[in-house]
């Protein structure tokens, strides 16, 4: 069962004022990241050209400022600290690895993302899971179809239901064909996953489906 359930004004990015006669490539920058305050340099923020963070502080970018004139980023500030520490010194986080990984993905800090993906906390939950789902043909497309069918059905109600058919091999697929046609003739919403060649655990597949749908903001 599935049920559907401002930032301050923008100004051009400005460099900190430097007294005449004192040149610097990395003026000091004060940041407000989701209510957490940080002080760093433009050189640190731009350390990885091509990253989203570097782009946010490029000379052509427009930045949001808070009431005190600090650059404002509307993200969770708690996990920005480890991102900043990595850019400063290359130090890897030792706590809150999944949360820091998520923020590294948002800011597109690719070297940090790769290092975090080698950590057990991320490898088992993210990398190995992706490899698992690659063995299920059409997984993402079928998941999208499930959500689309459920949303259409939920227009006139607060919840909807979609039947999920999991077929592990060609034999199961053939055995289910008549039942699927009958359900579709009765206007039932049905999405079929499989067949697949690898040895997959059905419970693991269902867990992945639940997690991915809930990640989109729906209740299962």
Automatic annotation (TrEMBL):
SUPFAM superfamilies reported for this sequence: POZ domain (SSF54695)
CDD domains associated with the record: BTB_POZ_KCTD14
Taxonomy, superkingdom: Eukaryota
Gene Ontology biological process terms, A to Z: protein homooligomerization
Pfam families: BTB_2, KCTD_C
Domain BTB: residue ranges: 27-124
Listed name of the protein: BTB/POZ domain-containing protein KCTD14 isoform X2
Gene that this polypeptide is encoded by: KCTD14
């Amino acid at each position: 069962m599935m049920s559907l359930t401002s930032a301050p004004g923008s100004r051009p990015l400005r460099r900190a004022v430097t007294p005449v006669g004192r040149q610097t490539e990395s003026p000091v920058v004060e940041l407000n990241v989701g209510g957490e305050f940080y002080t760093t340099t433009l050189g640190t923020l731009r350390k990885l050209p091509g990253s989203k963070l570097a782009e946010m502080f490029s000379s052509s970018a427009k930045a949001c400022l808070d009431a005190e004139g600090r650059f404002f980023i509307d993200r969770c500030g708690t996990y920005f600290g480890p991102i900043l520490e990595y850019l400063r010194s290359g130090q890897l986080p030792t706590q809150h690895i999944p949360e820091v990984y998520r923020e590294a993905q948002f800011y597109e800090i690719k070297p940090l993302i790769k290092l975090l993906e080698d950590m057990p906390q991320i490898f088992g939950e993210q990398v190995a899971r992706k490899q698992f789902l690659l063995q299920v043909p059409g997984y993402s497309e079928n998941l999208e179809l499930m959500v689309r069918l459920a949303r259409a059905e939920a227009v006139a109600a607060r919840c909807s239901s979609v039947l999920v058919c999991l077929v592990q091999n060609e034999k199961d697929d053939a055995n289910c064909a008549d039942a699927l046609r009958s359900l579709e003739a009765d206007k039932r919403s049905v999405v079929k996953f499989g067949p697949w060649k690898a040895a997959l655990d059905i419970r693991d597949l269902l867990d992945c489906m639940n997690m991915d749908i809930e990640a989109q903001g729906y209740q299962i």
